[in-house]
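User: Before I run my own analysis I want an independent prediction to cross-check against. Here's the chain; please return only the structure tokens and, at the end, one sentence I can use as a sanity check.
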Amino acid sequence: MRQAEFDGKGSLIRWTETPGEEPARVYVHGLGAASTVYHAHIAARPELAGRRSLFVDLPGHGISDRPAHFGYSLEEHADALAAALDAAGVTGAELIGHSMGGSVALVLAHRRPDLVSRLVLTEANLDRDPPPSAGSSGIASYTEDEFADEGHARVLEKVGPLWAATMRLADPRALHRSAVGLRRGSEPVMRTILETLKIERLWLQGELSGDLPGAAGLWAAGVRVVTVPDAGHNVMFDNPGAFAAAVAGRL
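Assistant: Structure tokens:
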């Protein structure tokens, strides 16, 4: 495990990593998740062997600190991720971001283009105010105090056991602020960032999640959009072979 200060007040973002060749692959989890849980089994596959791999837990999640003063916006998460990569001596990395982690990866690529050479995004949040079906919507429907008092426990009862296993480890206030920040979006908004970046960009959409709104616009902007069969939002669990092939550039 490694760590780096991210807020100027001693709070630490932490990650685990495996050694290997550069450029590094950096795995970034979604809202209420943890990177090793969602991605370690992918990085261990033979087609991905031999590359340096970092599994970063965003502030408020997993093994990273959860300071009460932190805002947990997409920009703040991206800056914390940048602090981790700077401390790790990583540049020109391939970022593999799931859901909110994909949004953070996009903001990082916009703010620190030196750190990112390729993006593999799995159903990242691209627009402000996502539909009520989005996981962030249920969390953000509470006030922060309501969520900290009883909302966290209620949401844990409603989500599936997989998500609950990592969400219960996230700080309730950090989780709520992250959900609110995700719904507020970035400036420029994440979809605009994705469409204007010039690096390689691959989008993975689970077949069971339905069609991706605005897919034609992404294709026109040079984003490769791939629908993964037999998979929903968690493509890395539902179809790990296709997910690993995408990360390896063989899909």
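Sanity check: The chain is about 40% helix and 20% strand.
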